[in-house]
From TrEMBL:
It comes from Acipenser oxyrinchus oxyrinchus. PANTHER family: SI:CH211-262H13.3-RELATED (PTHR34153:SF2), SI:CH211-262H13.3-RELATED-RELATED (PTHR34153). This is DUF4806 domain-containing protein.
Length: 115
């Protein structure tokens, strides 16, 4: 696994971490995981795959000197953004606009009814 993940690569540490995570964890699963396991999610920090990812990232010459803390920062950020991937952000924006339109429509109807 380590050898395979090390071949994925990237242009810098962040890109390497994110490329590897994209190959290992499907976004639907990523939405159920975070670093510490808070909010009824599974913790990533205790998984064996974390150490494999740390080692695989360092096999990329452009990320060879990355510290655990730096790599972990990018892992945490990748999980934080999982809700935005796969159209999540766009879907939330559409829902928000629909709610606002419905609210505006309801307010207009209520004002007309009282006249």
């Amino acid at each position: 696994l380590l050898s395979f993940l090390a071949t994925i690569g990237g242009s810098d540490c962040r890109n390497t971490v994110w490329n590897i995570l994209n190959h290992v964890i499907h976004n639907d699963l990523a939405k159920k995981i975070n670093w510490k396991g808070v909010n009824e999610k599974r913790p990533f920090k205790n998984l064996i795959v974390k150490s494999v990812i740390l080692r695989a990232v360092r096999r990329n010459p452009l990320a060879a000197k990355a510290t655990d803390k730096e790599i972990e920062h990018f892992i945490i950020r990748w999980f934080n953004l999982s809700s935005d991937r796969g159209g999540g952000r766009k879907a939330r924006e559409i829902n928000k606009l629909q709610r606002e339109a419905a609210s505006t429509s309801h307010s207009t109807n209520t004002a007309e009814d009282s006249e």
